[in-house]
Write a structure and sequence with these properties.
By secondary structure, the protein is an alpha/beta fold. Helix content is 29%, strand content 22%. It is built from eleven helices and 15 strands. The strands form three sheets. The protein has an eight-stranded parallel barrel with strand order 1-2-5-6-7-8-9-15, surrounded by four helices. The protein has a five-stranded antiparallel β-sheet with strand order 11-10-14-13-12, with no helix packed on it. The longest helix has 18 residues. The protein starts with a helix and ends in a 5-residue tail after the last helix.
């Protein structure tokens, strides 16, 4: 991005996001005095940890640990090094919370079976405490995709997953104490919200909930659309606002809800003979990172959907549609969090952002 354009966005977003300061004495359950969490998932190698600015990140989540039997397992020496380097950042940023995680897309194949017994849940919670004590981390983020509904093809699931998920959180809290942070990554789509989680029960064990308000049009989608829109459109009901409205109606406290931003985009190939546009027959082609967005969208016509409050881009010759977040949509999501008094913004993932003048800099305008 050219410097003049970047400065323009910063000035624009500053005026958009200015609002009266909130009471700093309104502490969160996790003791964080900030009314606005900025939560970064990190799925990169250890040598890139020091490439980013952590001044405004409040929580950093290692992605991902997996199950070995019923224990949380860190799979390689490189992953262990990554976690240790993440924890070392706290010497310079003492308020930073570093969390382990379980799962990810394709990473929870045995979760339904492992957590279907009390013994399995207890064993996991104890293994988590051992790992957390060893690495000196602050909590766990559970990314089980998905309890009680289909996830990756072939992965087991059962209706009992819904109640077992609550029981798992209870065991984690019991084994790790009240000061231990517990969060989970929640699907931002209707079926997950309606079927996967007992919301009234889980909120007593969680510090915050990371709502994946991205991939709403995904790798298995057959119709093009926005993968991370702020608002619904007549053609696409799934959106950030749709998910948050459902969750608030389900009784989830606003301060526990963290909305998701995408530091990556998706390309969809439009079916031959169909208009190159939103809401057309298509198949997923490939993804791109925000770091390379300018090059990835070379030759595309950049568009803005004023209803969805989301960018997209079209390439007629290549018959491709791109869907992503940009500076404008990130600023609007930040404002949405402030207006709704939600808990903050998380994003997938830090290594997809530019080292300087990236999307993280826009989120930094959240009041801290």
């Amino acid at each position: 991005m050219q410097m003049t354009t970047y400065i323009y966005y910063l000035l624009l977003f500053f005026f958009m996001l200015c609002s009266p300061k909130e009471d700093k004495n309104d502490l969160r359950k996790d003791g964080d005095p900030s009314p606005f969490r900025i939560i970064a998932y990190y799925a990169g190698p250890p040598d890139l940890i020091d490439s980013f600015d952590y001044q405004n990140i409040t929580h950093l989540i290692f992605s991902f640990g997996h199950l070995k039997g019923k224990d949380l397992h860190i799979g390689s020496a490189a992953d262990s090094t990554t976690i240790k380097k993440m924890v070392q950042l706290k010497a310079k940023h003492p308020d930073l919370k570093v969390m382990l995680s379980l799962g990810g897309w394709g990473g929870c194949e045995t979760c339904s079976d492992a957590f279907n017994t009390k013994e399995g849940r207890e064993e996991f919670a104890i293994s988590l405490k051992k790992l957390s004590d060893y690495f000196k981390t602050d909590g766990i983020d559970l990314d089980w995709e998905y309890p009680a509904i289909p996830g990756p093809p072939g992965h087991p699931y059962r209706l009992e997953d819904r109640s077992n998920f609550t029981l798992l959180l209870e065991e984690i809290r019991k084994a790790n104490g009240d000061d231990f942070l517990i969060s989970f990554a929640a699907g931002g789509f209707t079926t997950f919200i309606q079927s996967s989680i007992d919301w009234e029960e889980v909120i007593q064990y969680t510090d915050f909930i990371n709502v994946m308000t991205y991939d709403l049009v995904h790798g298995y989608s057959m119709t093009s659309g926005h993968h991370t829109p702020l608002y619904s459109t007549p053609q696409q009901s799934e959106s950030t606002d749709h998910a948050i409205t459902m969750l608030l109606d389900a009784g989830v406290p606003a301060e526990q809800l963290i909305i998701g931003a995408a530091f990556y985009g998706r390309f969809f190939a439009i079916e031959a003979g169909k208009p190159v546009d939103l809401y057309q027959p298509c198949h997923f082609s490939h993804g791109f990172s925000n770091r390379h967005r300018e090059d990835s969208l070379g030759g595309f016509e950049l568009k803005w959907d004023s209803v969805a409050q989301a960018p997209y881009a079209l390439h007629g010759d290549r018959k491709m549609l791109a869907t992503y977040d940009d500076e404008r949509s990130i600023a609007l999501k930040t404002k949405y969090v402030k207006d709704k008094k939600l808990g903050g913004i998380m994003f997938w993932q830090l290594c997809d952002d530019a080292y300087k003048e990236g999307l993280l800099d826009i989120i930094d305008f959240g009041e801290k």
